[in-house]
User: Fold this.
Amino acid sequence: MRIGVFDSGLGGLVIHQAITKAMPHYDTVYLGDTLHVPYGGRSHDAILSYSQSCVDYLFKQHDCHLIIMACNTASTTALRPLQQQYLPAHYPDRRILGVVVPTIETCVDSGLTKIGLLATQHSVRSNVYEEEIRKLNPRAHVLAQ
Assistant:
């Protein structure tokens, strides 16, 4: 099975490297969408379109069966629509995971109740981090910038 990792730029290389180190028996490929970097100031529709194009490329050209969306902005904006609507219609046997939930689980597991979030405008405005953190720890306070 091949795992694809994509980001709007190069930051996802850290995640790609961690996957390669933790699971060396898997073949991996990285896609940095540097043509459209940064995603943060783009419209919702543009982020969804760019993310869908990256997903299509990794599924079709590299035969990935799992894609890790390493871009926070894409994860907060495009992940759910792609998982819930696009995959069932076009790639029902493939999966996409984002970085929001693992990041939140790490914060909550650390016991922190005051959490700072530095993110793009789009990620901050989505309130996804705040909503998901409060599901796991209603006492947590998130300061997003």
Q: What stands out?
A: DSSP finds seven helices and six strands in the chain.
